[in-house]
Design a protein that fits this description.
Blueprint: E1 2-3, E2 19-23, H1 27-38, E3 42-47, E4 60-63, H2 69-76, E5 81-84, H3 91-99, H4 108-115, H5 117-126, E6 134-137, H6 140-149, E7 154-158, E8 168-169, H7 174-186, E9 191-195, E10 199-209, E11 215-217, E12 221-226, E13 229-235, H8 242-259, E14 263-272, E15 277-283, H9 293-296, H10 301-309, E16 323-330, H11 340-350, E17 355-358, E18 368-376, H12 379-395
Parallel strand pairs: 1-4, 2-3, 2-5, 3-4
Antiparallel strand pairs: 6-9, 7-8, 7-9, 10-11, 10-12, 10-14, 12-13, 13-16, 14-15, 16-18, 17-18
Helix pairs in contact: 1-10, 3-4, 4-5, 6-7
């Protein structure tokens, strides 16, 4: 591993294979590194710690904060493109990099709609796209007024920074909502309120778009959330009407074009009982709902993201099986005594077709430490198998009671 200093960052060489800098050293950067190797590229990462998932494996690492303009500049030197494994980089810093000639993809003019939920809701409304009713909340009076104007339960959200259920509150009463707002505003956290939607399920439509304007989609998937966190992804979404799937893909394609996105974007959707689609969130980077494609599509999201930010022609996204199910490996309440390596050994002995992706993370309760992909023919069989495999990797216990010694 090369830990880059101010003097060792290699200059831009147009004759060499591309260097892509990814801001953030998490698992998304780690898996993007795998795709970069296949394409003959180098992925440089800006990571905070040596134990970060991508810092463990990338050949070039700059250590520093994504909020530090000097660190961003150092990481960008010699890069053909700068991109992200999270959306938390200050927009002003990215605008400065663009002004200095850095190829930032997606550009900050697009990324702002994945960083700021209020800006995103406002923009989507201006574009005529369906979103839950919403309003900014600057006082308890604002949330009181919103709750009175919209019959039914509401959601309170942090405008910036929330993910995996963090920064989202589901109050059971107006008094609880007012208490949440009072506490969070006292901490300086800007908020918005939304009408809580009665859901049939959650979906995700993923698209990739290049600066040239070429775009490609993957099949719309169903995402299964537990405790505000994605647990399972089913590709394609079962029993989804063809016209609904087509509408979701078209929405993602049009939105990527209208916002000027370059790279991969996930459009997280609510499907109501009546079949209506509402936009919930945008993610302008590889996304948990696209992990299935690493093994289940001709071109997965990590390779496609690199192709897109470098303005290569995009790859074929055709699925490789009737059904692919991704199940997240989430840290157990107490880490098993059995090592992860031994758990992997047992899993492969029982399920040689399981495709396992581990992130190099220490185990903590509910932490995403990896995922399992299973391909097959029927949703019920493939989903049960994928969830059983993920549970084993988390807990070292077979959920169906299987004992290899019996």
């Amino acid at each position: 591993m090369t830990i880059l200093s101010d003097v060792s960052v290699r200059p831009f060489d147009p004759s060499a294979m591309p260097i892509v800098t990814m801001i953030g050293g998490g698992q998304l950067a780690r898996m993007t590194h795998q795709a970069a190797i296949m394409l003959g590229q180098r992925l440089r990462v800006l990571a905070e710690r040596p134990e970060d998932p991508a810092a463990q494996v990338s050949p070039e690492v700059v250590f520093g904060s994504h909020a530090d303009l000097a660190a961003l500049r150092k990481a960008a030197v010699g890069s053909h493109a700068v991109t992200f494994d999270h959306e938390q980089v200050p927009t002003a810093h990215l605008q400065m990099l663009r002004a200095e000639g850095v190829n930032v993809q997606p550009p900050p003019t697009a990324l702002i709609y994945a960083q700021d939920k209020l800006a995103m809701r406002t923009k989507l409304s201006e574009l005529g796209l369906p979103v839950p009713a919403f309003a900014p909340v600057a006082s308890t009076a604002d949330v009181t007024r919103f709750a009175q104007e919209h019959a039914g339960p509401i959601v309170v959200k942090a405008i910036r920074g929330g993910y995996d259920g963090r920064g989202v509150w589901l109050p059971n009463s107006l008094g609880e909502a007012e208490a949440i707002v009072s506490e969070q505003l006292s901490r300086g956290i800007p908020l918005l309120a939304e009408a809580r939607i009665a859901l049939k399920r959650e979906l995700s439509a993923m698209v990739a778009r290049s600066p040239f304007g070429q775009a490609a989609t993957w099949p719309v998937v169903e995402t299964v959330q537990r405790n505000g966190q994605c647990a399972v992804v089913i590709a394609p979404a079962p029993d989804l009407a063809e016209e609904t799937a087509t509408a979701a893909e078209a929405m993602a394609l049009n939105l990527a074009e209208q916002l000027g996105v370059a790279g991969v974007m996930a459009v997280e959707l609510f499907e109501t009982e009546s079949g209506q689609l509402l936009v919930n969130e945008l993610a302008m980077r590889p996304h948990n709902s696209g992990h299935w494609g690493m093994d289940g599509a001709r071109t997965g999201q990590f390779e496609q993201h690199l192709r897109a930010v470098l303005d290569y022609p995009l790859g074929d996204t055709t699925p490789l099986a009737e059904v692919t199910v991704m199940a997240n490996i989430l840290g157990a309440a107490q880490a098993p005594a059995m090592s992860m390596d031994e758990r992997l050994h047992h899993l492969f002995a029982r399920m040689p077709d399981a495709k396992v992706h581990l992130y190099g993370k220490a185990e903590r309760p509910d932490r995403k430490i990896g995922h399992v992909n299973i391909l097959g023919d029927t949703v019920a069989e493939v989903r049960e198998k994928a969830e059983r495999a993920a549970h084993w990797m988390s807990h070292a216990v077979w959920s169906d009671g299987w004992d290899p010694h019996e």
